[in-house]
Amino acid sequence: MNGLSNRKKSGNTVDVVWKLAAPIAAGLGLTIWDVRFVKEGAGWFLRIFIDKEGGVGIEDCEAMSRAINDPLDQLDPIEQSYCLEVSSPGMERELVREEHFRAFLGAKVRAKLFHPLEDGRRELTGTLRDFQEDTIILETDNGETISLAQKDASSVRLVEDDIVGGIAE
């Protein structure tokens, strides 16, 4: 056994797939940004987001998909059928892990909140100033500093100044 045995024995699907995918990605000059196993409609999707210095191209996604396909089949960590998707996290990537927040300190981000602030705002845009103990510190464009627990944000994404809603101006 290779230490990454069936998910029932060694933890959840995402952790098992991450441990399998990370060295494969490294061998291709890539890093793993995130792994998600989600149900959408009637289908299950295993999504592996890859990254590298200078950006990810379709060739990188194809290479990672081909390289991980057989090891995933051999390991068989997922009981049900699923669709494997390998992609870039994109320009407006979602920040979900501590290392994501640390890597993008000083960047412009948009945080969407589960519940509105006292003033009714459910979305904040500003500069990511700090990330400490699962707390996000943002400085809004008007200079206001806001601290919010990561668990209170439904998403935190990078904001590209030249892109509005994913469409270049």
UniProtKB/TrEMBL annotation:
The keyword Cytoplasm applies. SUPFAM superfamilies: YhbC-like, C-terminal domain, YhbC-like, N-terminal domain. Its main location: cytoplasm. Residues 21-92 form the Ribosome maturation factor RimP N-terminal domain. It comes from the Bacteria. It is found in: Cytoplasm. The keyword Cytoplasm applies. InterPro entries: Ribosome_maturation_RimP, RimP_C, RimP_C_sf, RimP_N, RimP_N_sf. Gene3D superfamilies: Ribosome maturation factor RimP, C-terminal domain, RimP-like superfamily, N-terminal. Keywords: Cytoplasm, Ribosome biogenesis. Residues 95-158 form the Ribosome maturation factor RimP C-terminal domain. Belongs to the RimP family. HAMAP family: RimP (MF_01077). Required for maturation of 30S ribosomal subunits. This is Ribosome maturation factor RimP.
